[in-house]
Amino acid sequence: DQQVKQNSPSLSVQEGRISILNCDYTNSMFDYFLWYKKYPAEGPTFLISISSIKDKNEDGRFTVFLNKSAKHLSLHIVPSQPGDSAVYFCAATPNTGNQFYFGTGTSLTVIP
Amino acid sequence: DTAVSQTPKYLVTQMGNDKSIKCEQNLGHDTMYWYKQDSKKFLKIMFSYNNKELIINETVPNRFSPKSPDKAHLNLHINSLELGDSAVYFCASSQGSGGARSIQYFGAGTRLSVL
């Protein structure tokens, strides 16, 4: 049962514009959410996270928004750069235990 | 200096063989993990160890046996390899669980091909 879902397998955006990647989850016990970026032939790299007590966290060009009532989070990248082209995974973890759930990923292509 | 390193990067072997993948982290983390990324690119946790103790053991065939000689190492041994074991295996580590402690850092992956 997929508890974290990324319904868009791919996204193309023009350089300089905003990229919005979406993620939905089903488990109300999740209380910490993360985004990872993955280049081919490399492991996932941590990008940004958000606790369930917040609704927004910003780090440079990256902002994560959390809507707990909708069980939805999104990652905004602005402005998008060609180097941002990668697969982005969202992940969630509950408040107890070490279980970690990943979405299936969204492949972002930023067109120069 | 690589934070989480796993070897080998590529592993090609015949069905029925036994193979091991090694993982080491120099981050001083207490918790280590093994993930399998299948052909659909889905990352699924297999095992998690905290201070050398097994804490997560997902529905994985018992041909897969993790071994943690110390908290900086978590090796994965696979017996009687099958075609369906072909995948990319990722090792990861975190400080622990809960909030920012749960942030995991990944190795570069081991691409296993079973012929």
Question: How is the secondary structure organized here?
Answer:
The complex is a heterodimer of chains A (112) and B (115).
Chain A: E1 4-5, E2 10-14, E3 19-25, E4 30-38, E5 45-51, E6 56-59, E7 62-67, E8 72-77, E9 86-94, E10 101-102, E11 106-111
Parallel strand pairs in A: 2-11
Antiparallel strand pairs in A: 1-3, 3-8, 4-5, 4-9, 6-7, 7-8, 9-10, 9-11
Chain B: E1 4-7, E2 10-13, E3 19-25, E4 31-37, E5 43-50, E6 53-57, E7 64-70, E8 73-78, E9 87-94, E10 105-106, E11 110-114
Parallel strand pairs in B: 2-11
Antiparallel strand pairs in B: 1-3, 3-8, 4-5, 4-9, 5-6, 7-8, 9-10, 9-11
Helix content of chain B: under 10%
Q: What best-fitting shape of chain A do the alpha-carbon axes yield? A: globular
Overall 3D shape of chain B: globular
- What's the total count of β strands of chain B? 11
Over all CA atoms, what is the radius of gyration of chain B? Answer: 13 Å
Measured as a percent range, the helix fraction of chain A is under 10%
Question: Biggest sheet of chain A: strands, sense, closure?
Answer: 6 strands, mixed
Order of helices and strands of chain A: EEEEEEEEEEE
Order of helices and strands of chain B: EEEEEEEEEEE
Question: What's the number of extended β-strand segments of chain A?
Answer: 11
Number of helices, counting only DSSP H or I runs of 4 residues or more of chain B: 0
Strand content of chain B: over 45%
Q: Oligomerization state of this entry?
A: heterodimer
Average of pLDDT of chain A: 94
Biggest interface goes to:
A-B, 23 and 29 residues
- Strand residues, percent of chain A: over 45%
Measure the end-to-end span of chain A. 38 Å
**Low-confidence runs of at least 5 consecutive residues of chain A:** none
Structural class of chain B: mainly beta
Arithmetic mean of pLDDT of chain B: 91
Structure in words:
By secondary structure, chain A is an all-beta fold. Helices cover 0% and strands 56% of the residues of chain A. Chain A is built from no helices and eleven strands. In chain A, the strands form two sheets. In chain A, strands 2, 4, 5, 9, 10 and 11 form a six-stranded mixed sheet that branches. Chain B is built from no helices and eleven strands. In chain B, a hairpin with a 2-residue loop joins strand 7 (64-70) and strand 8. Chain B starts with a strand and ends with a strand. Chain A binds chain B through residues 32, 34, 36, 41-46, 49, 51, 87, 89, 93, 95-100, 102, 104-105, and chain B through 4, 31, 33, 40-45, 48, 50, 55-56, 90, 92, 94, 96-100, 102-109.
